[in-house]
Design a protein that fits this description.
mainly beta; Leucine-rich repeat, LRR (right-handed beta-alpha superhelix); 22-stranded mixed β-sheet; globular; binds 2-acetamido-2-deoxy-beta-D-glucopyranose; cell wall
Length: 620
């Protein structure tokens, strides 16, 4: 029977039953057959929707919409994420998409997105038989194989969402024929090959997202012809060559992400005011872009976030950066930018994040920076700043809470004025400077302190008792100083009602000598503990209390003065991935069992008296 005959049969059936509800609910027999084949291709449907597809009333089936006049199925709506007024649930279908879906020739919408377990290939001829299809959603599944060439044959497709599958092969050239296409989502697949030139024909495309694939070659110059584009995301591929200059023709663009490729040459920026004036989000980080940051960047007056980190940019920061008054985040780290920071940066009154770390920027810092009253995070680490001292005006920046000034040539004592900043300090990194003197006791009063990194200085003192008050401390790095005394204050931090927050402690390469017995008392949240290269001695042995730290993933105790046996309790440290107790004065049998037996010999070496697996057997 051909389609028309089937429709006639359906119509006759309708007449015969005098328009009872049964007949109105019936879809055309050919659609019914196609839907049953689709159902048969699915082995498991955790939503239970398909189990209720029985009988012939397919127009009433959940997920099916028919056209009233013809009884043809026009929509399959079976997304994995089901939302009702009160509930949101993630369901799953396991199986394949039956090629018979192409018999549903009146379909306008196929939504099989987010079902997680649809596997196999997209039916090869899908584009040939669905002349009315407008939306094809197959995202969020387990589909493999190439995108069929036939997809370019849909005459009316507006949205193609194939993201988050395991599709491979190249982007079919035929996609360029989908002239009515508005959204093309291909991200998070395994697509390779080049971006076809033909995509430039998609003059109504507003969104092209192919990030997280393995695309190679140049970005074709034809992208500049997709004048309706508001979002272009090609990040995380292997694209190379230059940024096409035609990008500046994208007058509507607001999001442009080309980061994490191998783009080289200079950055294509507008040559005059007005071009790309909608661009709000520009990410070009992790490429090989060189040359200067052109002063034309000042034309991008809508920019809110700009990331150019980890490229090969050189020269001075253009003072036109100060025109970007909408900027909230500016990332420039990991380049070869030099000269001083322009005073105009002080005009970026909305700036929240400024990261210029790892460049060749020279001092002094312009005091104008202090007018950035919304700035929360400032990272100027590892430049050629040679600051000598932390500028006093920093204490006047009322939002500043994360301060990264590592490797800035800061000398002398840790200045007092940080104690009185208007905003509570949460992260303070003054590592690899020339700080001397003691760790000031007022640090213990920074009630919101989460990260403290004073490593690689010449600090010479005990850990102040006030550290016991640092309830929010999560990361503490004091390694490579000349600190002495007890490590106990760190492990006696009062715990909030939700338990301890301390996760990472590195006190290695100091001269601490005591306090290790206090460790097990609390701070059960610690995952990384490095006490290596100190003068620690357990009174007789490595304290059994260490075995209380059951969250530990890495424990480094090498190069200390520990004596006695490795406590049996260490067999309770089931999350431990790395242990080093080498070069102490330990003896006796290594407790036998996981995880201790899995570590290499070098974890235990340099202790005259240790024996048992993985070292040699103990003598009886
Ligand atoms: C079919 O008719 C019903 C009732 O008149 C209406 O609510 C529904 O929207 C129509 N469906 C389509 C696809 O036109
Ligand atoms: C996805 O498909 C692979 C085979 O290609 C299978 O091993 C895996 O279990 C599938 N995953 C899901 C979530 O269905
Ligand atoms: C592009 O969009 C415009 C305006 O929405 C519309 O008139 C035109 O038909 C579309 N072009 C194609 C090829 O669909
Ligand atoms: C921008 O578009 C115009 C006209 O559409 C075209 O003449 C010009 O070559 C394009 N510019 C670039 C850099 O491609
Ligand atoms: C600054 O950027 C670098 C490189 O991208 C990054 O490693 C560092 O964590 C950033 N600093 C802050 C404070 O986020
Ligand atoms: C900090 O701000 C106060 C009040 O606005 C001002 O008097 C003082 O001079 C400022 N200090 C620095 C170092 O800029
Ligand atoms: C502390 O700073 C040093 C040097 O800058 C760095 O290597 C280390 O990773 C930092 N520690 C933490 C925990 O971030
Ligand atoms: C101490 O151990 C931690 C955790 O493995 C590690 O991140 C850190 O780099 C080590 N410190 C030194 C100075 O090697
Ligand atoms: C720590 O271990 C000791 C025994 O070694 C035990 O008495 C004590 O209750 C443990 N403390 C916590 C907080 O679990
Ligand atoms: C343990 O530390 C010693 C240095 O004391 C080092 O030689 C050895 O490689 C380390 N072993 C492991 C497994 O980390």
């Amino acid at each position: 029977m051909d389609h028309h005959l089937l429709q006639v049969v359906a119509l006759l059936t309708l007449i015969a039953f005098g328009g009872t509800s049964w007949s109105i609910e019936a879809c055309s027999p050919i659609d019914l057959e196609a839907l049953m084949s689709f159902k048969n291709g699915i082995q498991k449907d955790t939503s239970g929707r398909l189990a209720k597809w029985i009988g012939a009333s397919c127009c009433k089936w959940e997920g099916i919409v028919c056209e009233n006049a013809t009884f043809r199925v026009i929509q399959i709506n079976l997304p994995g994420l089901i939302s009702t007024d009160t509930d949101l649930s993630q369901t799953q279908m396991i199986g394949r998409i039956s090629p018979s879906i192409t018999l549903l020739s009146s379909l306008e919408i196929i939504d099989l997105g987010g079902l997680v377990g649809l596997s196999g290939a997209i039916p090869d001829t899908i584009g040939l038989h669905l002349p009315k299809l407008q939306k094809l959603y197959l995202y969020g599944n387990n589909l493999t194989g190439p995108i069929p060439e036939s997809i370019g044959k849909f005459p009316n497709l507006q949205e193609l969402a194939l993201q988050e599958n395991k599709l491979w092969g190249s982007i079919p050239m035929s996609l360029g024929s989908l002239q009515g296409l508005k959204r093309l989502l291909l991200y998070s697949n395994k697509l390779s090959g080049i971006i076809p030139d033909s995509l430039g024909n998609l003059i109504n495309l507003t969104e092209l997202d192919a990030h997280d694939n393995a695309l190679v070659g140049n970005i074709p110059n034809s992208v500049g012809e997709m004048k309706a584009l508001t979002k272009l995301d090609l990040s995380n591929n292997f694209l190379s060559g230059k940024m096409p200059s035609s990008l500046t023709n994208l007058t509507a663009i607001s999001v442009l992400y080309l980061n994490t490729n191998s783009l080289e040459g200079t950055i294509a920026f507008p040559s005059r005011s007005g071009e790309m004036s909608s661009l709000g989000f520009l990410r070009l980080h992790n490429n090989l872009l060189g040359g200067n940051i052109p002063s034309n960047i000042g034309y991008l007056v809508s920019l809110q976030r700009l990331s150019l980190s980890n490229n090969k940019l050189e020269g001075a920061l253009p003072s036109s950066l100060g025109n970007l008054v909408s900027l909230t985040e500016l990332y420039l780290s990991g380049n070869f930018l030099s000269d001083q920071i322009p005073k105009s940066l002080g005009q970026l009154s909305r700036l929240i994040m400024l990261n210029i770390s790892r460049n060749l920027i020279e001092g002094p810092l312009p005091q104008e920076i202090s007018s950035l009253q919304n700035l929360q995070t400032l990272d100027l680490s590892f430049n050629h700043l040679q600051l000598s001292a932390i500028p006093k005006w920093m204490a006047n920046m009322s939002s500043l809470s994360n301060v990264y000034l590592a490797g800035c040539g800061i000398q002398g004592q840790i200045p007092d004025f940080f104690q009185t900043t208007n905003s509570p300090i949460q992260e303070l990194d003054l590592s690899v400077n020339i700080l001397s003197g003691s760790i000031p006791s007022w640090i213990g009063s920074l009630s919101q302190l989460y990260l403290l990194n004073l490593s690689g200085n010449s600090l010479y003192s005990d850990i102040p008792d006030s550290f016991r008050n640092l309830q929010d401390l999560g990361v503490l790095d004091l390694h490579s100083n000349r600190l002495t005394g007890s490590i106990a204050p760190v492990f006696e931090i009062e715990q909030g009602i939700f338990g301890g927050s301390l996760k990472f402690v590195d006190l290695s390469e100091n001269s601490f000598s005591s306090g290790i017995e206090e460790i097990g008392g609390g701070q059960l949240s610690i995952q990384f503990l490095n006490l290596s290269h100190n003068h620690l001695e357990g009174r007789l042995h490595i304290p059994e209390v260490l075995a209380n730290l059951t969250s530990l993933k890495i424990l480094k105790l090498q190069e200390n003065l520990f004596t006695g046996k490795i406590p049996n309790g260490f067999l309770k440290l089931l999350k431990l991935k790395e242990l080093n107790v080498s070069n102490n004065h330990l003896e006796g049998e290594i407790p036998e069992g996981k995880p201790l037996v899995d570590f290499p010999e070098s974890s235990y070496s340099g202790n005259k008296g240790l024996c048992g697996k993985p070292l040699g057997p103990c003598k009886l």
